[in-house]
């Protein structure tokens, strides 16, 4: 992960408002996996605590890491000081915790921030080192949309609402695909009401996309063992209609 993955303050500030609207499909799946684990759990890319806070409130023994200090600042505002020791500003590739886990999860396309193979393998093996024997690692990625890979996305509004009563917020997204490097160059532009008028800021980042057999070979090169790749959050098999990869690995 590189500096581009440290989310700007304005992205972290509005993250919860936007994704409460845009991202609900994975919630039950990851919460059920976390709450169904008897031992310690680690969330890689904990962000502002979309799963973490709910799981902790239900007495899960959960910890979290994130490469972005701005996202962790938002999380800590909502987290009781007694639990601040549960979150760490760390990178998955160089993870160093004095704990091991029965489950590690990396929800919402965390591995899309890992652009090159060395980084991907380093992260997988670092996670392996932090799993107890028999422990599982579950992460998800999107199935590439061939139409988007051909044409990209041009100034698509995916959120237009309020972040507070009477205060408007709008997000416009563009994506330029690079088929050779297997990345989308994503631009997010936010416009919001602020004291004295409106503000607009943009952020550009690279998001790696993966294909099924690439994922199988990638995990095979790591020390983890691939158990299954599902096609949705309800445990169905991959089909031509699948929109997500849910990858389940284990430390054997």
Task: Tell me about this structure.
The chain is of the alpha/beta class. It contains seven helices and eleven strands. The strands form two sheets. The chain has a seven-stranded mixed sheet with strand order 3-2-1-4-5-11-10, with helices on both faces. Strands 6-7-8-9 form a four-stranded antiparallel sheet. The radius of gyration is 18 Å and the shape is globular.
List the helices and strands and how they pair.
Blueprint: H1 9-22, H2 27-35, E1 41-44, H3 52-57, E2 62-66, H4 69-78, E3 87-89, E4 101-106, H5 117-129, E5 131-142, H6 146-151, E6 153-164, E7 167-178, E8 183-194, E9 197-208, H7 212-221, E10 225-230, E11 244-250
Parallel strand pairs: 1-2, 1-4, 2-3, 4-5
Antiparallel strand pairs: 5-11, 6-7, 7-8, 8-9, 10-11
Task: Quote the CATH topology of the largest domain.
Answer: Rossmann fold
Strand arrangement across the biggest beta sheet: 3-2-1-4-5-11-10
Q: Tally of extended strands?
A: 11
Shape: globular
Determine the CATH superfamily of the largest domain.
Vaccinia Virus protein VP39
Give the SSE string. HHEHEHEEHEHEEEEHEE
Provide tags for this entry.
7 helices, 11 strands, alpha/beta, 252 residues, 4-stranded antiparallel beta sheet
């Amino acid at each position: 992960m590189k500096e581009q993955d440290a989310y700007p303050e304005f992205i972290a500030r509005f993250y919860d408002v936007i994704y409460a609207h845009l991202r609900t499909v994975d919630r039950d799946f990851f919460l059920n996996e976390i709450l169904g684990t008897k031992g310690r759990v680690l969330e890689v890319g904990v962000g502002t605590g979309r799963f973490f806070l709910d799981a902790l409130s239900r007495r899960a023994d959960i910890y979290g890491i994130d490469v972005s200090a701005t996202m962790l600042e938002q999380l800590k505002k909502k987290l009781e000081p007694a639990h601040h020791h549960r979150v760490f500003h760390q990178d998955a590739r160089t993870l160093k915790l004095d704990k091991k886990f029965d489950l590690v999860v990396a929800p919402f396309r965390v591995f899309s921030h890992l652009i090159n193979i060395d980084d991907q393998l380093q992260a997988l093996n670092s996670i392996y080192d932090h799993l107890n024997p028999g422990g599982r690692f579950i992460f998800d990625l999107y199935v590439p949309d061939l139409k988007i890979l051909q044409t990209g996305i041009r100034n698509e509004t995916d959120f237009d609402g309020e972040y507070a009563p009477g205060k408007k917020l709008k997000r416009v997204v563009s994506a330029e695909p690079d088929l050779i490097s297997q990345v989308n160059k994503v631009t997010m532009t936010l416009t919001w009401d602020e004291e004295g008028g409106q503000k607009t800021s943009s952020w550009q980042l690279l998001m790696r996309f993966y294909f099924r057999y690439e994922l199988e070979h990638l995990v095979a090169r790591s020390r983890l063992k691939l158990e299954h790749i599902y096609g949705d959050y309800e445990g169905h098999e991959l089909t031509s209609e699948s929109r997500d990869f849910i990858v389940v690995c284990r430390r054997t």
